[in-house]
């Protein structure tokens, strides 16, 4: 039962981050998509969960234009800086582990304007 509730919440969170064309990407959308990744990124799991990878795919979907990519990058950077125990190696490997090619690096120190 608990797993079913988590699955429903994850699906609802995924649909909440879908953006209609012409709308700006918000950090709330990016944060909601990547929340399931926190345990992996802080070293509490060996691999990202299916919910985490769905969130990574959702962020990639949000970042369609150069402005969207910059906004997502800044949001990811801000989120990464909230967690002192974030593992840089896990963050950098996250897209690959989820099978997603990202144009947005997951890093605390990335320059999102480049």
TrEMBL record:
Domain named Bifunctional inhibitor/plant lipid transfer protein/seed storage helical: residues: 27-112
Keywords on record: Lipid-binding, Signal, Transport
Keyword Transport: yes
Keyword match Cytoplasm: no
Signal peptide location: 1-24
GO molecular-function term, one example from the UniProt record: lipid binding
GO annotation terms (biological process): lipid transport
Similarity comment: family membership: Belongs to the plant LTP family.
Function recorded in the entry: Plant non-specific lipid-transfer proteins transfer phospholipids as well as galactolipids across membranes. May play a role in wax or cutin deposition in the cell walls of expanding epidermal cells and certain secretory tissues.
Name of the molecule in the record: Non-specific lipid-transfer protein
């Amino acid at each position: 039962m608990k797993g079913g509730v988590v699955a429903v919440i994850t699906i609802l969170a995924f649909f909440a981050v879908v953006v209609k064309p012409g709308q700006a990407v918000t950090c709330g959308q990016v944060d909601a998509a990547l929340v399931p990744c926190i345990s992996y990124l802080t070293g509490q799991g060996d691999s990202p969960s299916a919910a985490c990878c769905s969130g990574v795919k959702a962020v990639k979907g949000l970042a369609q234009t150069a402005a969207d990519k910059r906004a997502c990058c800044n949001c990811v950077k801000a989120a990464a800086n909230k967690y002192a125990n974030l593992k840089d190696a896990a963050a950098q490997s996250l897209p690959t582990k989820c099978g997603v090619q990202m144009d947005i690096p997951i890093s605390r120190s990335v320059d999102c304007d480049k």
